[in-house]
Structure formats: C-alpha cells, structure tokens
Amino acid sequence: MTFKAWSNVLGGFHRPRLIRHALRDFERGSLAFGMIEDLLKTASAEIIGTQVSLGMRFVTDGMLDWHDIFRPFVEAWRNVYPDGLLRYFDNNFFYRIPVFKEEPEPSKLVLATRIRAFKELAEPANFKVVIPGPLTFTLLSKNESGLSKEELAKSIAKVLNMELKEAVSAGALAVQIDEPIVIDPYIELDDINLLSDLTKIVFDGVEAFKILAIYFGVPKKEVYKKLIDLKVDSISLPLIENPKNFLDLIKDFGVGDKIPILGVINTRNIYDDNYDLVKNIVKKSVDIIKPDEIGLTTSSWQDLIPYRYSLRKTVILGEYAERLSRELGFDYINPLSIV
Amino acid sequence: MEEFKVPKKFPTTVVGSYPKLDPAPEILRKLRKKELDEKDFHELVRPAIKKVVDDYLWAGIDIISDGEQSREDMVVYFAERIKGYTVGDWVRIFDNTYFRRPVIFDKVEWTSPMTIEDWEYARSISKKRPVKAILTGPYTMVEWSFDLYYKDRKEAVLDIAKVIRKEVEEYLRRGVKYVQVDEPALSTRPWREDAELVKEALEIIFRGVQAKRVIHICFGRLERILPYILDYPVDQFDLEFKNSDFRLLSYLKEYSFDKELGYGVIDVHSLQIENIDEIVKDIEKLMKLDIIGPEKIYIDPDCGLKRLPREIARAKLRNMVEAAKIARERW
How far is Cα B165 from Cα B207, in angstroms, rounded to an integer? Predict the structure, then answer.
C-alpha cells in the first residue's frame, strides 16, 4: 500500500473548567466579556497546540464558545432567533431550536475573525472551519418564515456560502459542512436531492478542501448512494459507530471520487479505543476502496465527553494514525515532519 | 382529613421535576462538597419541597410530585446512590449547563432507599393528594452513563432494572398509588430491539405491582417507537405532545391506543404561557379523534418543569388546571 494518510479531529471540543466557570460568571454579570475573550483565546490555543503537536493535518479552534453548532450563526443573523431546547440526535445534549421568521440575513460573519485570530497558532497545520450543513440546519429549525422548506434551505446555504468564502479569504484551507441529519432513517430522498443543490450553493466559489461530515449513525443505502455523488472533495464517515454496516456500504457503493475520512476513534465514549479493532477497520476499508489518500478522524465532535477525554481521544487519534501508517505502510502526512 | 378524590375525568398531574427552589441549590452544592450527610441533606431540602407542593396545591394539581428538589439530575441522583456507579466528569447538556455523567465501574446493587424520604415528606404535606413515585428508568440510566463494567448493554439495563425494582418495593410497602418510570432516552433510539429491552426491564420493575404503573417518554420521534411499546406492562403512557405540535395524535388513532394517556399540553421548553383556551383546544384535538375516553386521559405538561422560571411554571400549571376543569364540563 502506498498512499497518503493524514489525521484531523472532526469538530469542536468540550469546554475546560476554566471556560465553563468563566462563562457562568459572565452570565451572572460578575465577569466582563473582554476577560472571557482572553480566556477563550488561551484555551483555544491549548487545543490547537494539542492537535498540531500530534501531527494533525487540519486543526480546528475547538469552538469552545459555541453553545451548539447552530447558535453562533443564529445569533449573527437577522430574522432568526434561538428558542426552546430540543434533543440533539440520540445524545443527552440539547440545542436551541432556531426559529426563522424571514429569510436570514447576516449582520456579521462568524468564522473569519476566528481564523484571523488563530491561524498562526495552527501553523504548520492548516486551519479547518466547520459549519452546520444547510439541510441539517433547515430540518432541525422551525420555519415560520413563510418560505417553503426548499427556499429557506437555499437561503441558509447562501449565507453559509458567504461565511465560507470569507473564511477562506481569512486563511482556512479546509471547509467542512456537517450533515448528521442524513443518518435519520426516516429522511426523505427528496431531502437528499435537495442536499445536492444545497451543497452546490454552499460551496460555490469556495476555493478550499471541501468536506462533508456525517455522524451519529449509518445512513440508509439509498441515501449513501446519493451522498457519494455530492460535489465535495471528501466524505467523513463514523465507521467506528457501526463498522460492519459502514464496510458493507463501502463495499457495495465505494466512496465515489471522494477522499474518504475514516472516523475510527469513538468520541461518544471514554474508553481508549481498541487499536486492533481500529487497525482492522482501516485495513478493510483501504482494501475495499484502494484509495490514493485517506484521512483518519474521530466519530463525532469531542464535546459530548468530558474535557480530559476529549484531549485523550485526540492523543489516541494522533498516536494510532502514526502507528497505523508504520504498520500498514501509508505515507503519513504530518505537517510537523515536513517543516 | 378526608381522602382527596382524584377527578374521574381529566385528572391533572405533573411529570416530576420543578424549578429548583431555595434552599435546594445551596443544599445540593453542600452535598457535592460532602459538607452534608444523606440524612441531613433530605432534612434540609424540605423547605424547597414544601414550596413546590404549595405551588402545586395553589395551581390545583390532582396528582403531584416532590418536585425532584434533591435531584441534581435525573441520572446523577440515582448513580450517586447505586453501588457500582461513580459520578464522572462534567458533560454539557445544553448552553453552559452540565451534568456529571456517571460511570458504571462494577456490578450495580441497591443498598438502601434512594427517593422515599422526599416522597414521604411531600405526601405528608400534600393535603391527601396522591404523590407519584418517580424513578429514572434503567435504559436511560445506561444510555446516559459511561459503562466501563458491563460488556453487554442488555445485562447492564436489566441489572439496573432489578435495582429500581427494589426501590419500587419500598414504595409499595408504603402504599404508593402511582409509580412512574422515566425513559426519555428511548425516544432517541426508535428501534424494536431497544423497545423490547425496555419492555423486559419494565417486566422486572412492575411485576405484580398493584399501583398505577406509568412510563414517561418524551421528545424525539415518538411515533417511530409507538408500535413497539403498546404492549408494555404499564397502565399509562405519559407522553409529550405540545412541543411536537400533537404530531403523535394520528398515530395513536392508527395503532388503536387504548391505555391511559398522560397527555402533555404544556411546552416545558417555551417561556410562553399557554392560555386556557389554547389548552382546551389542545384537549379537543384528542377528544375529536375518539381514541380513548376522558376517564383515561391525564392532563399534564410534556415533561418536567425544571428548566422554567418558577413564576412561569406556576402560571402554566394554573392554566392547565383551569383548562382541565372546562374539559370535564364539556366532555
């Protein structure tokens, strides 16, 4: 096997205690926002540093200030507000339902300032930005805008496109849209067809490595077949959640022309992942796909497990990726070893 | 004092939790810091329970709870008292709110009553209204914990079911009339296998129980699990309707639902107070479908009220009770 491999975490991290307490104090009015910003920068720098030191090719800033994946955008856009809580998939975690009253309009952009603040810390790795996919955003929101579902989804995709373009201008080299809604066993194929249009809109004119990430489960076959036709460079799949079903999908349908990113470190539990199991999944995947390049990643964001485990899982990912490369003969891309 | 008579039609009830009232938050903090023992803790939390019960009585709720004032969280509370569990690190539930996700590190065992003391106190001040025994179900306990001991999820769930059963026996000895098991995690995994596992657990918990047996499930896509749960060994399904815009109603009709129904008409995730007319109309939605009669319908909120400000929780309950009175006249 001679192909390139690299690693990156999927998304955000759990908040360290310092940030939890600072945000609590801020909400109580006993801490100024400027203080929070400083603490967030420090905590984010630690998370970025962890990823860089473990050889990740793309790094995130950990999104420590995001209350949920939608919130920063909901708060930065006009005509939408965060309402009551609803469970986020099968987790004991709740997001605030975005309620759209009209077509969203950005009053400010969320991502670019973060990249400008952190991209130098990420060197020599590359900065990845992560946004909610427009289909998930739409289907997990309440639409009181008078627009049809399709119209609202497209208007969300257009604003997200503005975010991504500005993020790339600011220095992001990888852009990821998260579409966990596609694992919903009751999702309509019409919605997946809509996702095809939305993906074109959200990535239009975005000159960066484009990733579609799914997580929390396995999509239906007919959904998966459509996902691998979407106009993205790479697809991130949480194989460790259900190795057999994912391997069957890959065997039956391949991954299209996408660079597969294999989610092999389970970030919904606190065990150290079994190395032999991870190796077996990776080996079987590459035997089937015969890729030129693969990514290795976590099965979901690392915000569903305590902070110390979110760091631990990052360490496991980095160490396993290096070891797998040695044992399976990948050409491992570690930005630290290039410089 | 004369026994309180629960209305035959549309009795009103609560799912369980209520906003934490003083001094509960401070007492919980002291318990966490190990500044209090269990006995003192339950003694000191009584003023909070008293306020909750007073609110329920003011609103006119027929079947009340102790408001779960002692429970930091529905899973953590039990995990702290079941042998084989330890309380883990903080994990976010929403916004900047966290719970200490427990860890199972050994075989679980019941050691002593966990919830009885608060329930008995609530019952002593309830003016003869029945007080529900409310227990977190074994499936939810396992799903919302990290399990480092059991290799098999089923084994873990059934072992915790045996623990919960012991607690139910304590209630039965004290003459409990309503026992509710909360399984909110079930709606997030709408699979037959999971539903059957919960059924097996409920058979352990409710075997031979003469009190009213209730299961509470909320949020998620309830309609997906409905066909798998109708034969559960319970008398009543307590379900969320309001938040999901009563989507479940047509499915109840489709599956010829004929058990008692805890009918959630209050959105516990919204600060907007449902007015009386609105609640009556929501009850009418159910009545129009002619699925079950009013004697099988319990009017209650979608879920626990713990996330609401107290004044909003009170106002919602008061309107709910007034709406139930109108419903009794109408149907």
Answer: 9
